[in-house]
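Sample entry was shown:

___
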Amino acid sequence: MGNALKNIIYNCNQATFLIEKKLAGKITTAETLQLRIHLAGCSVCKIYQQQSILINSLFVGFDSGDFKLDKSFKKSLTERIEKEINKN
């Protein structure tokens, strides 16, 4: 199996990035193919894609100014995310 093919088949980080990029409407033909290949064998990323589509649909029509987080909450959330990322 080619190295490039292995990279997309086993790379959920790249797949979730492409899912979000696609939802933003800015995905290339090559990226679409890579994502389809990954999703063909990864049920976890399929679920992630379904959830992302649902979340995005819930926020259609909201102005970004409608959502504001205070600085202490942002800092706490950032620290929690970094802690989870660094677990592996």
Observations:
- Helices lie at 3-9, 12-23, 29-41, 43-58, 71-85.
